[in-house]
Amino acid sequence: MLLPRFLTTSYPMERHYFAVPKFVLWLIGLYPEKERTLAVKLWFFFNFFILTYGCYAEAYYGIHYIPINIATALDALCPVASSILSLVKMVSIWWYQEELKSLLQRVRFLTEEQQKSERKLNHKKKFYTLATRLTFLLLCCGFCTSTSYSVRHLIDNVLRRAHGKDWIYETPFKMIFPDPLLRLPLYPITYILVHWHGYITVACFVGADGLFLGFCLYFTVLLFCLRDDVGDLLEVKNIEEFPTLEQEARIVWKMERLVDRQNEIAELTQRLSGVMVEITLAHFVTSSLIIGTSVVDILLFSGLGIIVYVVYTAAVGVEIFLYCLGGSHIMEACSDLARSTFASHWYGHSVRVQKMTLLMITRAQRVLTIKIPFFSPSLETLTSILRFTGSLIALAKSVI
User: Fold this and answer.
1) Which of 38, 51, 55, 271 has fewest C-beta within 10 Å?
2) Is residue 11 helix, strand or coil?
């Protein structure tokens, strides 16, 4: 299978590190590690204004058309849910930029330390490449969704012109604008800015979701490397029948370092929860509604409208899946650490080492999770969301 080099394991690992989120957030002037020059700040606030006004214009349009034409209203209200959610993500990343920068640098340092063996390097290659591929998939889905709105509008107008009808001066996303902005010569500029509004929405989604998924997978690498080091330290060949004080002290010192590493991973996970709480909570609260509304739009529209909302629904579904997949990877890595440590020869070591090992097993059994109010992202959560979405679809079908 032929893939671009940046999606393969041969791509340098340091360049894999948050490759896609770094690109999209840099594109809108929001990447936490990017130097905050005046030009970058001005570009960021320009994008912030475009996204904010787009949210207002879409919401106003949708609410205005609810009593007039429900299909047209939903055509505006469905995308505005994603736009508002992207605005939340943009503000959250900006607000927590210093904390995110600290996390990015610390996790980079810790993962770069885990390249001392081929086994650890393989863990890193596997999960770094997986993070890049999945976030690139999300970027492709978002790009196709945003582009499909513009393509739909252009094709509809081309067909109208072919049948001798007038061009409809509307924007690809349904928005309310002052009349002069929807007439020549300003209409092309308005159209381009609205189109860019769609790509800003995509960039915020991919950036925030990519950061979440990346941190989850990189924490998984740290947990797997910790598991390997614990197994190597406690293996049979390190057990002396009559150990000297120096030999026992060396084992105790190494075990203390491993416990400290486990504590730091737990602390980093807690810090990530604090940074991502607003983003993740808002995402899960709105995702079912977005998917349900998209399905209603699929039932109401025909032709190109169906294709647009099928792509939209698929993109939102991929986002939810990535959140849940990242959370599940951390939980499974913790459980694997507990099982592997318990299966080692810890009972052959000194009492102090045994106590530290049991402490590690106990902490690993309390699996690390990204703590969000009411739930934690996992594949079980995804199942619940799909069931709720199915109920919304069934309700829509009964009404329609």
Assistant:
1) 38
2) coil
Q: What is the predicted pLDDT for the residue at 152?
A: 83
Bond from prior residue into 185 cis (ω within 30 degrees of 0): yes
What would the pLDDT profile of 186-235 be if each residue is shown by its tens digit?
988 999 999 999 999 999 999 999 999 999 999 999 999 999 999 888 88
Rounded CA separation 10/365 (Å): 35
pTM metric for this prediction:
0.87
Contact at 8 Å (CB) between 304 and 152? yes
Sign of the torsion angle spanned by Cα atoms 102, 108, 110, 111: positive
Other C-beta atoms lying within 10 Å of the C-beta of residue 58:
27
What letter would DSSP give residue 278?
H
User: How far apart (Å, rounded) are the C-alpha atoms in residues 115 and 123?
Assistant: 9
Q: Count other C-beta atoms under 10 Å from residue 283's C-beta.
A: 24
**By the 8 A CB rule, do 147 and 248 touch?**
no
User: What is the biggest distance separating any 2 CA atoms in the chain, rounded to whole angstroms?
Assistant: 96
